[in-house]
C-alpha cells in the first residue's frame, strides 16, 4: 500500500482524536491525582485501542466490509440492521455532543475576544463547516485533512503552552470522586465509540494489519494526548471547566480556530459513518447527502441537549458495543466457529444489561475487559453444549 495512503490514514485518525470532547473527558480523571490519573488514561487507551479498535479495523480490512457489515457472519442480516441502527443513533448523539462542546468553547472565547455570544450562531457555524467537509470528494478531503490536522497539532501545542503559562487558579475547586476502574473505563469507552466506524476507512485492499495498526496508532496517540491535556489543565489550573481556562489565556483566536476545525474533522467522521449505517438499512446510496441530513438533525438536537448525561452516554456506548464485538472477536478470531444466531443474540442482550450490573464491581481494568472475558468464556462453553458451525474463511 502507498505510504501516502498510510500517512493519510494516520493523520485522519490523529485528527479524529483532536477534539474538545476528548479534552473535556480527560478533565473527569483529575480526582485520581497525577500518578493514578496518567496510568488510568494510558491503560484505558491501550485496552480500548489495541484490544478492541485494532481487531475491528483488521476484520474490516481483511473482509473489505464495514465493521457493522462484518457482524453478519455471526449475527445474520437482522444483526446488521439492528446494529446499524444502534450505531447510527450513537453517532447522531456524538454529532450533537461535538457541536455542543464546540459552541460552549467558542462562546467562552468569543465573549472575551469579541464580547459576543450566541448558542445558535456558533452551533450553525460548526454544522455548516461539517456539511462543507461532507461535500468534498474523498481524495480531496484526505489532502485537505492532512494539512488541517498538522496545523491543528501545532495550534494545540500553542494552546497547551498558554494553559501552562496561565498558571494555577487561586480558587479552590471540588474535583469530586472517581475510582481507578471507572477512570479506565471512561478511556476505554471513548475508543469503543469508534469501533463501528473504523471499518469505514480500513475496508480497502492492502495489508490488513498495517492499515489497521497505522489508523489505531494515530487515534491512540491523539486521544491519549487530548485526555492528558484535559487532565493536566485541571491539575495545573485548579479549575474543572476547560473552556473557562482556555478563555483566560492570551491565545483566543488560535484556540477558537483549533476548536472549530478539530470539531469539524472529528464530527465529519461521525456524520459520514452514521450515514453509512443508515444506508446499510435503506440501501439508497447517496451517503454524503444522508450525512448532511445527519448533521442537520444533530444540530437541532445540540440546541436542546444537556451535557449533564455525558458520562452516561459514554457508558451506554460501552453497554451496546462491548458485548457485540466481544462475541464477534471470539467467534471469528479465536474459535473460527459461530453459535446459532439466536444464541449469539441472547448473549448480546445479557451482555447489554450485564454491563451496568458489572459496573458495581468497579473492576480495576474497567467493565469492558471484565464483560469481554465473561462473554468469551460463555460463547466457548455454549459451543460445547449446543454445537457450532465453522465460519467461512
What would a concise description of this structure say?
The chain has 393 residues and is mostly helical.
Could you walk me through the main structural features you see in this protein, from its secondary elements to its overall organization?
The protein is an all-alpha fold and 393 residues long. The chain has 16 helices and 2 strands. A two-stranded antiparallel sheet has the order 1-2. Helix 3 (34-63) packs antiparallel against helix 10 (208-237) and helix 5 crosses helix 13. The radius of gyration is 21 Å and the shape is globular. The relative contact order is 0.19.
Topology:
Blueprint (H helix, E strand, L loop, with lengths): L2 H15 L2 H8 L6 H30 L3 H4 L1 H42 L5 H17 L2 H29 L13 H13 L2 H8 L5 H30 L4 H7 L3 H31 L4 H16 L7 H26 L1 E2 L2 H18 L8 H20 L2 E2 L3
Antiparallel strand pairs: 1-2
Helix pairs in contact: 1-7, 1-10, 1-12, 2-10, 3-8, 3-9, 3-10, 5-6, 5-11, 5-12, 5-13, 5-14, 5-15, 6-12, 6-13, 7-10, 7-12, 8-14, 12-13, 14-15, 14-16, 15-16
Amino acid at each position: 500500500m502507498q505510504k501516502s495512503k498510510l500517512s493519510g490514514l494516520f493523520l485522519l485518525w490523529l485528527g479524529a482524536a483532536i477534539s474538545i470532547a476528548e479534552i473535556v473527558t480527560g478533565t473527569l480523571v483529575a480526582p485520581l491525582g497525577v500518578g493514578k490519573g496518567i496510568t488510568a488514561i494510558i491503560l484505558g487507551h491501550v485496552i480500548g485501542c489495541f484490544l478492541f479498535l485494532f481487531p475491528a479495523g483488521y476484520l474490516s480490512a481483511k473482509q473489505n466490509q464495514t465493521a457493522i457489515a462484518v457482524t453478519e457472519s455471526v449475527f445474520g442480516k437482522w444483526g446488521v440492521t439492528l446494529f446499524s441502527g444502534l450505531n447510527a443513533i450513537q453517532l447522531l448523539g456524538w454529532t450533537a455532543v461535538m457541536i455542543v462542546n464546540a459552541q460552549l468553547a467558542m462562546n467562552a472565547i468569543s465573549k472575551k475576544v469579541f464580547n459576543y455570544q450566541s448558542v445558535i450562531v456558533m452551533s450553525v457555524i460548526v454544522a455548516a463547516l461539517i456539511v462543507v467537509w461532507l461535500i468534498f470528494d474523498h481524495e480531496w478531503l484526505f489532502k485537505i485533512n492532512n494539512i488541517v490536522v498538522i496545523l491543528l497539532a501545532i495550534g494545540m501545542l500553542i494552546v497547551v503552552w498558554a494553559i501552562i503559562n496561565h498558571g494555577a487558579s487561586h480558587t479552590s475547586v471540588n474535583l469530586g470522586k472517581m475510582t481507578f476502574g471507572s477512570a479506565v473505563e471512561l478511556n476505554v469507552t471513548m475508543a469503543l465509540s469508534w469501533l463501528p466506524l473504523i471499518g469505514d476507512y480500513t475496508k480497502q485492499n492492502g495489508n490488513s494489519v498495517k492499515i489497521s495498526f497505522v489508523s489505531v496508532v494515530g487515534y491512540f496517540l491523539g486521544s491519549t494526548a487530548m485526555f492528558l491535556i484535559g487532565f493536566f489543565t485541571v491539575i495545573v489550573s485548579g479549575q474543572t471547566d476547560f473552556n473557562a481556562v482556555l478563555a483566560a489565556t492570551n491565545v483566543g483566536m488560535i484556540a477558537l480556530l483549533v476548536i472549530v476545525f478539530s470539531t469539524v474533522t472529528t464530527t465529519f467522521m461521525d456524520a459520514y459513518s452514521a450515514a453509512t449505517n443508515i444506508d446499510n438499512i435503506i440501501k439508497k446510496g447517496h451517503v454524503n447527502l444522508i450525512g448532511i441530513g445527519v448533521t442537520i438533525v444533530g444540530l437541532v438536537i445540540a440546541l436542546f441537549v444537556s451535557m449533564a448525561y455525558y458520562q452516561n452516554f459514554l457508558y451506554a456506548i460501552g453497554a451496546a458495543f462491548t458485548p457485540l464485538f466481544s462475541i464477534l472477536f471470539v467467534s471469528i478470531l479465536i474459535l473460527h466457529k459461530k453459535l446459532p444466531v439466536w444464541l449469539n443474540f441472547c448473549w448480546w442482550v445479557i451482555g447489554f444489561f450485564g454491563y451496568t450490573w458489572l459496573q458495581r464491581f468497579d473492576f480495576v481494568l474497567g467493565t469492558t475487559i471484565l464483560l469481554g472475558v465473561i462473554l468469551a468464556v460463555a460463547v466457548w462453553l455454549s459451543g460445547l453444549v449446543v454445537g457450532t458451525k465453522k465460519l467461512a474463511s
